[in-house]
Design brief:
By secondary structure, this protein is an alpha/beta fold. The chain contains 16 helices and 17 strands.
C-alpha cells in the first residue's frame, strides 16, 4: 500500500479469508440504509467485488462526494449481516486506488473521485479542456493559475466593505458607469504607478471582469477594426487562445524561446496584433529580453498592436521588477491585468487600458456586454488599494508563495530528477520538461489524475510539437500537499503510466514504453 493510504483499514484480512467468509451468516438477503445497498443483488462468492464496485460507482457519480465519510466497517457489516472482514476488504480496495483514506477517529473519508470517461466530459468548444479538468474532483490540485486562497484578507475586506456601505447614498445603488467606478479607476491608476512603474490617467482605465473579459472585448473591437488574425505565444495560455478564438479571431502561433517571443516569427506571421505575457511568460516563465523588446516595439510603432497580459507580474522572488510594455509605447499597447492571482479569481475584477483610438469602442462593448461590473466590489477594492492594505497583502503572500515554491523545487529534485525545471524566479507555477523522453505528457497527467493529483500537461498549451512536460501550480497547496503531489507524479512516472479507470478530458493515453525515468540530470531554469 502506498504511504498515503497507510492505516486506512486496521486489521484487514486477506482476500481469500474474506471471500470464504461471504457464505457465513444468514442466507437471506440483507440490506442497509447506506446507499440503499441490497446484498441480495451480489453474485454468490463475489460480495466483496460487488460492495467495492457499488462504493466506487457512488464516488464516481457524486453520490459520495469528496469529503464524505463512509460508515464504520463494524456498523456497515452489522447492517448487511456480513463479516466485518468483507467490508474492510472492500474499503481497502478503494484505499489502494487512492479514493478513500483513513483519518483515525474521523473514520474513512472519500478523498478522490475517478476522472470521468472521455466521452462524458465537455467538448473543448463548450468550456474547454481546462474547465473540464477543473470540474474533476481530486485529492491534491497542482493546477497552475490559482493563488493561496486561504490567505484571502477576509478581515480587511469586511472592514473596507463596512466603511464603503456606511458612506454610500441611495443614488450609489443605481446603475454605475460601464467604464467602471471612478474611485476604482483612480485607485488602479495609482496601483499601476506604484507597482508597475507607469502613469495612467483614470479615464484610460476600463474596469472588466478579469483578463478573460478584456480579451473578449478586444476581440470584438478588433474585428470591427478589420483585424482577424492575432499572433499568440507558443507555448502559451490555452485559455487565452480559446478566448480569442471564441471571439472569432484566428490565432497564429509564434515560437517562444529563452529570450521570449520570436519577433522575427511575429513579422513573418503577417498578424497585425499579438497577445503576449512579456514580464513572466506563461508557461515557460521567461522574460522578454531587451533586444526582443526593442524589436517588438519597432514592429508595433510600424502599425502593429500589442495586447499585454500582465497576469502575475507582482509575484517575483529572485529578480527585479520587469517594466510593462505599456510604459514604453502606450499608443500601441493594450494592457490587461486583474486581482485574480493576487486576491481571488472569484472576484472577477480586472482592468484594461487601450490606446486612445480604441477607448470609446471598448467602453461601448463593455456597456453592451453587462452595463459594468458590480459597484460595491469595485469600491471595496478601491479602498484596499488606496489604504495600502493590498500592498501589505502582496508582501504577505509573496513570502508564502516563495516558501511553497522552494518546497516544490526540493520535491522535484527528489522525485522527478530527470525533469528540467523552468521559471522558478517568479509567478505561481513551475514548468517542467522531460527532454528526450518517450512518453506523452497527457499520459503522465492522466496517470497522476487516477491517483488523485491534478496537473496540466504542457502539450495542452502548445500548438506545435515539443518535448513532454507538466505545468505545476504551487501557490494554492500546503507544503505537505505539494510534497505528496510531486511524489505521486514520480510514482506515476515510475509505474509506467498505465492502468487506472480514466483519462484527462479529451486526451489519449500512451504507455511509457520502458518504465524508466527519462534521462538527464536535474536542472532549474530561473527565468
Amino acid at each position: 500500500m502506498s504511504r498515503s493510504n497507510e492505516g486506512v483499514i486496521q486489521g484487514s484480512k486477506t482476500r481469500s479469508t474474506t471471500e470464504s467468509s461471504e457464505t457465513d451468516g444468514s442466507a437471506s438477503p440483507s440490506g442497509s440504509d447506506f446507499l440503499q445497498l441490497d446484498l441480495g443483488q451480489a453474485p454468490p462468492g463475489g460480495r466483496t467485488d460487488w460492495l467495492a464496485g457499488r462504493l466506487r460507482a457512488a464516488i464516481a457519480d457524486g453520490t459520495l462526494p469528496v469529503g464524505s465519510r463512509l460508515p464504520a466497517s463494524r456498523v456497515l457489516a452489522a447492517e448487511l449481516r456480513v463479516s466485518r472482514g468483507l467490508v474492510t476488504e472492500a474499503y481497502q480496495r478503494l484505499a489502494e486506488t487512492g479514493q478513500v483514506r483513513g483519518r483515525g477517529r474521523g473514520g474513512t473519508v472519500v478523498v478522490a473521485a475517478p476522472p470521468p470517461a472521455a466521452g462524458a466530459t465537455p467538448a473543448p468548444d463548450r468550456g474547454g479542456l481546462v474547465d473540464a479538468l477543473r470540474a474533476v474532483p481530486c485529492r491534491i490540485d497542482l493546477s497552475p493559475g490559482v493563488p493561496d486562497l486561504t490567505a484571502f484578507p477576509r478581515t480587511a475586506w469586511l472592514q473596507a466593505e463596512r466603511r464603503v456601505l456606511a458612506g454610500l447614498t441611495p443614488a450609489d445603488f443605481g446603475y454605475g458607469n460601464p467604464q467602471g467606478a471612478p474611485a476604482l479607476r483612480a485607485a488602479v491608476a495609482g496601483w499601476l504607478a506604484r507597482n508597475r512603474g507607469f502613469r495612467a490617467d483614470p479615464d484610460e482605465v476600463v474596469i472588466v471582469a478579469g483578463v478573460a473579459q478584456a480579451l473578449a472585448l478586444l476581440a470584438q473591437v478588433l474585428r470591427e477594426e478589420g483585424v482577424h488574425r492575432v499572433a499568440v505565444e507558443d507555448p502559451g495560455s490555452l485559455g487565452a487562445r480559446q478566448q480569442l478564438e471564441y471571439g472569432r479571431l484566428e490565432t497564429v502561433p509564434v515560437r517562444v524561446d529563452e529570450a521570449g517571443l520570436d519577433v522575427a516569427g511575429l513579422r513573418a506571421s503577417g498578424a497585425r496584433a499579438v497577445l503576449l505575457t512579456p514580464a513572466h511568460q506563461f508557461p515557460t516563465g521567461v522574460v522578454l529580453d531587451g533586444g526582443r523588446r526593442g524589436d517588438l516595439l519597432g514592429w508595433a510603432a510600424a502599425g502593429g498592436l500589442v495586447i499585454e497580459d500582465d497576469y502575475d507580474a507582482e509575484h517575483r522572488y529572485d529578480r527585479a521588477p520587469v517594466p510593462a510594455l505599456r510604459a514604453l509605447l502606450p499608443e500601441a499597447v493594450c494592457y490587461a491585468g486583474s486581482v485574480s492571482k493576487l486576491l481571488a479569481p472569484a472576484l472577477r475584477l480586472g482592468w484594461l487600458l487601450v490606446p486612445p483610438r480604441l477607448r470609446d469602442a471598448v467602453t461601448a462593448a463593455k456597456r453592451y456586454a453587462d452595463l459594468g461590473n458590480p459597484v460595491l466590489a469595485q469600491l471595496v477594492l478601491a479602498r484596499l488599494m488606496d489604504s495600502g492594505e493590498l500592498e501589505r497583502h502582496l508582501r504577505h503572500v509573496r513570502r508564502r508563495h516563495r516558501r511553497r515554491r522552494d518546497v516544490m523545487l526540493r520535491a522535484l529534485a527528489e522525485h522527478l530528477p530527470g525533469a528540467r525545471v523552468h521559471g522558478a524566479a517568479a509567478g505561481l507555477h513551475l514548468m517542467v520538461t522531460f527532454d528526450g523522453a518517450g512518453f506523452e505528457d497527457t499520459a503522465l497527467a492522466s496517470a497522476a489524475l487516477t491517483l488523485g493529483v491534478k496537473a496540466h500537461p504542457l502539450s495542452w498549451h502548445r500548438v506545435r510539437p515539443g518535448p513532454p512536460g507538466l505545468i505545476l501550480g504551487y501557490a494554492a497547496g500546503s507544503a505537505g500537499e505539494i510534497e505528496e503531489g510531486v511524489a505521486t507524479l514520480g510514482a506515476a512516472l515510475r509505474g509506467g503510466l498505465g492502468g487506472g479507470p480514466g483519462a484527462l478530458p479529451e486526451t489519449g493515453r500512451k504507455v511509457f514504453p520502458d518504465r524508466r525515468q527519462p534521462p538527464g540530470g536535474s536542472r532549474v531554469v530561473r527565468g
